[in-house]
Write a structure and sequence with these properties.
4 helices; single chain; elongated; 111 residues; mainly alpha
Length: 111
């Protein structure tokens, strides 16, 4: 049982570390200046080192924190998937309308 909990909790820890690093990158990239570009496109070494420090630092966090993270991440992931399903359906409808308009205008390669 202990090995199973260790495996699952390490997955949660790497997930929290990735969320932390990506949110930090997002917040730093919100500006429209050169520093935002540097943080977003460069500094890979700093990002990887930060990710590793956060990951190993999370081993000192109690597992009860991970349970609340799991509950929050389930809700957020549901909203994320629902949003992207709606976006995919919208893309397909828009794409179909463009094809129909081009066909009606005589721009089709298949006529």
């Amino acid at each position: 049982v202990y090995k199973r909990q260790l495996g699952v909790s390490s997955i949660y820890r790497i997930s929290i570390a990735l969320v932390t690093v990506f949110l930090f990158t997002l917040l730093c990239s919100m500006g429209k200046d050169k520093a935002a570009k540097i943080v977003n496109e460069a500094c890979w070494g700093c990002k990887i080192v930060t990710l590793l420090f956060v990951f190993f630092g999370l081993f000192f966090v109690d597992n009860s924190y991970l349970e609340s993270y799991v509950s929050i991440s389930r809700v957020v992931s549901f909203v994320f998937i629902l949003f992207f399903i709606i976006m995919l359906i919208d893309l397909c409808y828009t794409w179909g309308e463009v094809w129909i308009r081009r066909y009606d205008e005589g721009q089709s390669e298949y006529k």
